[in-house]
C-alpha cells in the first residue's frame, strides 16, 4: 500500500506539476533513447538494425501515436543525421534505412501519372499542378488526394511527408557526397491539388475552405523542403533553374493561401515539423 501511494505521488508530481511532459514526449524520448545509438555510431557495428527500423515502422504505423509526435521523431532523426560526415557512412544499415524511407515515401505519398479523375468533392476536383518535368515524369506527390481520403490515416500521414523526405535526402547526401541524383524526380514532380468547378471559393462551405487552406499549407511546406534540400546539394544548372521555379511556385501558393485565409478567419495553420 505504501509503495502504491509513492507511485501515485510521483505520478501526480510528474504529470501535474510538469504539464509540459506529455505522453507524446515520453514516447519520443523512449524511442530516441533506443534509436539514437544507431545513428551516433555512424551505423557501423550495430547488429540490431532490423529491430531498430522495425521499431520505427511500428511507431509510425501506430494509430494511438499522434501525427505530430511521429513527425517530431522523424525531424529529430534527420537532425541527428546531419551531424554525420557526408560520404562517411555507406554501411548496410544506411542502405536499409534509405530503402525503408524510400518505400514509405513512394507508398504513402506518390502516385502514378496521369492521375485518375475523381468525382467532385465538396465542389472541388483533384488535378495535378506545377509539373516542371512535363512528360518526362511519371509520378506526382499526392497532397489533396490524401487529404480528402475517407481513410483517416491517410489524412494524418501528410504531417510526415516533409520529415520523411528530410531524413531521406540526408541519407542520400551521406552516400553520394552531397548529391541527390537518386531522388531528383521529386524536384520536378507535380503535386495533386484541387481545382474549382464553377463557383468561386467564397460560395463554398467553411469546411471546404479549410480543406483548401490545409492543402495549400502542406503544398507550401513540401516545396519549402524541396528547395532547402536541393539548394544545399551538389547540383548542376538544371537543378538551379528548377529550384528558382519552385521558389516562384511557393510565392504563388502563399498568395493563394493569404487570399483564402481572408475568407476563412477560423483556419489556424497546424504546426509543421
General description of the model:
The protein has 273 residues and is α+β, with helices and mostly antiparallel strands. The chain has eleven helices and four strands. Helix content is 58%, strand content 7%. The chain has a four-stranded mixed β-sheet with strand order 1-3-4-2. α2 runs antiparallel to α3, α4 runs parallel beside α8 and α8 packs parallel to α10.
Key words describing this protein structure:
single chain; 273 residues; 11 helices; globular; disordered N terminus
Helix content: 55-70%
The biggest beta sheet reads: 4 strands, mixed
Number of strands: 4
Rounded mean pLDDT score: 80
How far apart lie the N and C ends? Answer: 44 Å
Helix count, DSSP H or I runs of 4 or more residues: 11
Give, in spatial order, the strands making up the sheet with the most strands: 1-3-4-2
Strand content: 5-15%
Q: Structural class given helices, strands, pairing? A: alpha+beta
Order of helices and strands: HHHHHEEEHHHHEHH
From the spread of the alpha carbons, the general shape counts as globular
- Weakly predicted, low-confidence segments: 1-21
Computed Rg: 21 Å
SSE topology:
Layout: H1 2-16, H2 23-40, H3 49-61, H4 67-81, H5 92-109, E1 110-112, E2 124-129, E3 139-142, H6 144-147, H7 152-156, H8 161-175, H9 185-188, E4 191-196, H10 206-231, H11 237-262
Parallel strand pairs: 3-4
Antiparallel strand pairs: 1-3, 2-4
Helix pairs in contact: 2-3, 2-4, 4-8, 5-8, 8-10, 10-11
Tell me briefly what this model is.
By secondary structure, the chain is of the alpha+beta class. It has helices at residues 2-16, 23-40, 49-61, 67-81, 92-109, 144-147, 152-156, 161-175, 185-188, 206-231, 237-262; strands spanning 110-112, 124-129, 139-142, 191-196.
